[in-house]
Design a protein that fits this description.
seven-stranded mixed β-sheet; Aspartate Aminotransferase, domain 1; 2 domains; Aspartate Aminotransferase, domain 2; binds pyridoxal-5'-phosphate; five-stranded mixed β-sheet; about 400 residues; alpha/beta; 12 strands; 15 helices
């Protein structure tokens, strides 16, 4: 095979393999095992005492199916190392516990589960946590008052797709001796590579675009070998490893990631343009529209604008609920990133716990609907929205 370092991302991920299969299968078998047999005690001690590399117990992360997946995950973000987890929250919690204990400064809107983890659990453990609105970014430098803190954010953010400047935040953080962790779930590694823009740690809910078919729950961390080693020990002892069968399913999904994301990008742009023309739609939040407030910044740091968008319909919460209920192709469900299109109303789901005032402060209007645009024919998605808006 040719030098894999020179190959493009699609070739690299399709031919991602640790070993040549003795039977000629293009893909590796699933190593559905929890343990590994040794020839004798000496061979076992060689592994335990680190003299030779070997697999001892799957929970430690030493499983060939999982390690092959991690090779592919690292490749996607051009990272030195990757770790696979049982869920996105497992990846996020292990990373925050491993690298956020000196204090975590969050910028902008966060996924609801992450917010809960930070408030209910990290703060309970005594970890200082600060939240800055996007508009308060100028205060970041002062918040990083001593080295060793962790800056944490998402871009594009949920559900208004707000964009944060990856390079600018990383520069400020590094000047103050802080690490930068970015949840890259919404963009996917095809549309945005935060490590190349200065981030130190990249997180994914692989449940979303990486899995892409709404049939698996998994998470991923891509980072340097050094930072990954610390997180791996937390993953091992918190017991957060992905199952080998899920790892194999996720590896299968990664082989089509690039084509899926390109189609998600095209479909979402078509839907966004159609919604922008609709008289009952007051606003469309999509980074790929020139009318979007952060369009210029998005164009600088993203190579595609993703499959997520939100619209604000005339008539507030009631009207939005009725549109959601009348959609037939879009399914009324939370989550995102699958081949099927989904609709959800942030005020009824992810941001239900907030007051109206708090929602408006976060740019979530009363009539907002979040769309995860899938891989159906764009004309059918647009027709579905038109009939539901009637
Ligand atoms: C879904 C999601 C998560 C959590 O991932 P799980 O796989 O559900 O644990 C984290 N961040 C973002 C942006 C998400 O959309």
């Amino acid at each position: 095979m040719s030098d894999s370092a020179k190959q493009g991302p699609a070739t690299g991920i399709i031919h991602n393999r640790r070993h040549k299969d003795p039977f000629g299968s293009p893909y590796s078998p699933v190593y559905n095992t929890t343990t590994y047999r040794f020839e004798n005690t000496e061979a076992l001690l060689d592994v335990i005492e680190g003299r030779t590399q070997g697999n001892l117990y799957t929970r430690w992360g030493t499983n060939p199916t999982i390690q092959e997946l991690e090779m592919g995950l690292a490749r996607l973000e051009n990272a030195e190392a990757a770790l696979a987890f049982a869920s996105g929250m497992a990846a996020i919690s292990a990373t925050l516990l491993a690298h956020g204990r000196n204090g975590i400064v969050c910028v902008g809107d966060l996924y609801g589960g992450t917010q809960e983890l930070l408030i209910n659990h990290c703060q309970t453990l005594g970890i200082p946590v600060r939240f800055l609105f996007k508009e308060e970014l100028a205060q970041l430098e002062a918040e990083l008052d001593r080295p060793g803190k962790l800056v944490y954010f998402e871009t594009p953010a949920n559900p208004n797709l707000a964009i944060l400047d990856l390079q600018a935040i990383a520069a400020t953080a590094h000047r103050q001796g802080a690490l930068v962790a970015v949840d890259n779930t919404f963009a996917s590694p095809i549309n945005q590579k935060p490590l190349e823009l200065g981030a130190d740690l990249v997180l994914h809910s692989a449940t979303k675009y990486l899995g892409g078919h709404s049939d698996l729950t998994a998470g991923a961390l891509m980072t340097s070998t050094e930072l990954a080693t610390t997180v791996a020990s937390w993953r091992k002892n918190l017991g957060q490893l992905i199952a080998p069968e899920t790892a194999a399913l996720l590896s299968r999904s990664l082989r089509t990631l690039q084509v899926r994301i390109r189609q998600h990008n095209d479909n979402a742009l078509a839907v966004a343009r159609a919604m922008e023309q609709h008289p009952k739609v007051l606003k469309v939040h999509y980074p790929g529209l020139p009318s979007f407030a952060d369009h210029k910044l998005a164009s600088q740091q993203m190579t595609g604008f993703g499959g997520m968008l939100s619209i604000e319909v005339e008539g507030g919460q009631q009207a939005a609920a009725s549109v959601a209920d009348n959609l037939k192709v879009f399914l009324l469900a939370t989550s995102l990133g699958g081949v099927e299109s989904l609709v959800s109303q942030p005020s009824a789901t992810s941001h239900h716990a907030l007051s109206r005032e708090e929602r408006l402060q976060r740019g979530i209007g009363d009539g907002m609907l979040r769309l995860s645009v899938g891989l159906e024919d764009a004309q059918d998605l647009i027709a579905d929205l038109h009939q539901a808006l009637k």
